[in-house]
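Morning run. Coffee first, then this:
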Amino acid sequence: MSTPSGFLRGTRALFAAAAKSAAPLPKTNVASTSSKKPTAAAAAAAAKPSKEKKASTSGIMKPTPISPTLQSLVGAPEISRVGAVKKIWEYIKLHNLQNPSDKREIICDDKLKKLFNGQDKVGFLQIAKLLSPHFIKTV
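And here it is:
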């Protein structure tokens, strides 16, 4: 890989030479470090409550209401998009619905046909797109 301006040209040889001449780091004995008692500062830091805000779930990780068709397969009134795809894959693996000659292709049974607009076969990359209409938009 070369850069257009020649910047960093020839640095591979410099880095290789530096790596050879660098002394290896001393190894520490694991048994001796585990017997040390924690310092007072470390104990105080562990006792302080964290001031970090808990990140709220959003996007594909946020549980949203789903259609009754998807509810019958998933078993919950609300689920995240990621969770729904995971449940679909669990169902596919449990009922052995992957095409044996092409594992990327899913052969739909009656439940999946209802979910995937009556299609007999679905590619694994189409699952998320075909699930999209089953997530109810909330304002």
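Helices lie at 11-21, 30-34, 40-47, 68-74, 81-94, 110-115, 127-131. Good start to the day.
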